[in-house]
Amino acid sequence: MDWLALQTATPTPSPPVGPEGLTDYWPIILRGAWFVAGFVAVVFLGWFVVEPLVARYVRQRNRNNPTIQEAVARYVRLLVIVVAFFVAAGTAGYGDLIGDSALVIAAGTLAIGVAGQTVIGSIVSGLVLVFDPEFNVGNYIEWADRSGTVQSITLRVTRVLTPDGELVTVPNTLLTGQAITRPYGRGRRRVVEHVGIAYEADVSEALDHLAAATDAVDDIVAEPTPKAYVDDFGGDAVVCRVHYWIEDPRRHDIFGIRSAYARAVKRRLDDAGIAISPASKRELQGRIEVDEESDRRGVA
């Protein structure tokens, strides 16, 4: 009986083979084709149009920093892939599915943002520094109580070489969250010196010597013209203030220039008989009392 039941059972119809069978899968194939077409179009546009333009801009501003160039190119390509996925999903008609999953995506994004807020903040700060026209590799900067020359700018940190030869890694959030000074930002830098001279000296003659001493230092430029002024009346000397300018401080030893100027000033003032910051003089007044009884005991 079981064998007869198997013989009389209705056979399961097999799916049609050939073009007629493709009609059942045609909507799925069409959606897949639209998804692939949208994804490829956006990736092609992003990788071969947008990314080269961004890379060219970054390369012009950071010629000596291939690290940031590679990092920006990598992140731009990653962003293009993410955008291409959502554009392709919308083109293929999966927008409703993505919309239904928006809450899950938002929750995941929030979790990632909270967990990596420091890293994300550093990356955003790095992008701000990269696109800041006043902040470049090779600039000498001062921040907080440190200073140095910018060696490289990445999306997370900036590396600065200090005058002592230390390579300091500074988080980008630290540089974007406080004031940064560029003392050499305009190609020239004004140097200010203070020199004290004796009150007995001829102040006008001393000022002439202080300004003329800049001619003995080759690295001090003639324009703007060096100037000397009386700055203050100190307790023991008249304090003079000297302004002079040096060209492209990044290529010169500022301490060496200041030392050369100080030696030139010393020679000129010594030749003119003008004392530099004379030694302090103090008059002591008072009275000494001697105990007569103690004095007698000492004599005895």
Assembly form of the protein = single chain
Number of domains: 3
Major β-sheet, in short? 5 strands, antiparallel
Number of helices: 10
What characteristic shape results from the CA principal axes?
elongated
Radius of gyration: 39 Å
**Biggest sheet, spatial arrangement of strands:** 4-3-2-1-5
Family: Belongs to the MscS (TC 1.A.23) family.
Keywords: Cell membrane, Membrane, Transmembrane, Transmembrane helix
Protein name: Mechanosensitive ion channel family protein
GO molecular function, one term: mechanosensitive monoatomic ion channel activity
Describe this structure in words.
With 300 residues, this protein is an alpha+beta fold. The protein has 3 domains: 95 residues; 48 residues, Roll (SH3 type barrels), CATH 2.30.30.60; 85 residues, Alpha-Beta Plaits (2-Layer Sandwich), CATH 3.30.70.100. 51% of the residues lie in helices and 17% in strands. The protein has 10 helices and 8 strands. The strands form 2 sheets. A 5-stranded antiparallel beta sheet has the order 4-3-2-1-5. Helix 2 runs antiparallel to helix 3. It is elongated. The protein starts with a helix and ends with a helix. The N terminus is likely disordered. It is a multi-pass membrane protein.
Secondary-structure topology with pairs:
Blueprint: H1 2-8, H2 19-61, H3 66-91, H4 95-100, H5 102-115, H6 117-130, E1 140-143, E2 146-153, E3 157-161, E4 167-171, H7 172-176, E5 180-181, E6 188-197, H8 203-212, E7 227-233, E8 238-247, H9 254-272, H10 292-299
Antiparallel strand pairs: 1-2, 1-5, 2-3, 3-4, 6-8, 7-8
